[in-house]
Amino acid sequence: MEMVHTIQTRITKCLGIRYPFFQGAMAWITGWEIAAAVSNAGGLGTIASAILKPDEIVDEIRQIKQATTNPFAVNIPIRLTGSKEAVEVAIAEKVPVVVTSTGDPAIYTEKLHNAGIMVFHVAFSLEMVSRCNDAKVDAVIIMGSEAGGNLGPEELTTMVLVPQAVQKTRLPVVAAGGIGDGKGFLAALALGAEGIQMGTRILATRECTVHARYKEAVLRARDTDTTVTGRSTGLEFRVLKNSLSQKVLEMERAGKDREEIDSVSIGGLRRAAEEGDVENGSVMMGQISGMISDILTVKELFEKIMINASQRVSEISRFF
Ligand SMILES: Cc1cc2nc3c(=O)[nH]c(=O)nc-3n(C[C@H](O)[C@H](O)[C@H](O)COP(=O)(O)O)c2cc1C
Question: Which ranges of the chain have pLDDT less than 50?
């Protein structure tokens, strides 16, 4: 008989979903297909809008509405040009949730709330948590620097940031960065979070449409295989160590300016995600890649996380 594990936090309750598991938006990668798979498996799927034109965002939203009746989110990085149009689209298409990132949550939250849309904001620091309080978002996603993709300049870790964020806000906190299994989920709950967001672990799922060579690179990666580029230019990204990241780091050490560095890295994520060029592309992934060794369906992944987390609870209790 299948064991049914259930869990309730403010995150599952406010969304009416089975598991407090968010799929992080990943530009060039997470379209409606993976987002629908996640929402159908009981989590919250997210469409990345970062590189899409307004009509493409409309198309993604209409597709996901055909594929799931469960809640889903659209990610809108505030700082990108085009965020205003993306917000208009989200309102016109009546999406249930918008996850805003990289920017001030005060800018769009009230407008989205007035349209009946729930707003979650991604924060890298306590200063941003305060702004989330002021903007009255519905939940804060705390992202530590173990994560893949764009990092906060201070590179605070999930371990230290989540409990401090929980102290600083009454809003539900979702932990992101370095989480991909039951142990990580349980640790996030222990730190006071009420949900988790995963990016890298989701790359290695059957339903993820990223190029197969990108998935293989996640499986192959070991503990020391990621690095951070962009520290000299203020645009920090955690990526796989490869020819491109080596070249960028050499340019940074040589004091090259942002324009020159951009000229070699531009289009890097597309090259990796769509063409599968894992040597000359920007293969963004987090440190948790060192622990990922199998491709699962999203449903299998979520069930495994739930089973392992509850087993771990009983294993830990013997220490007390
Ligand atoms: C390839 C890649 C692309 C990403 N793109 C975005 C994005 O467009 N918007 C965003 O808010 N976060 C983005 N992220 C961050 C993820 O949504 C998520 O928070 C992060 O991956 C969680 O950490 P993990 O990789 O350790 O699971 C990206 C991450 C990766 C790995």
Answer: 1
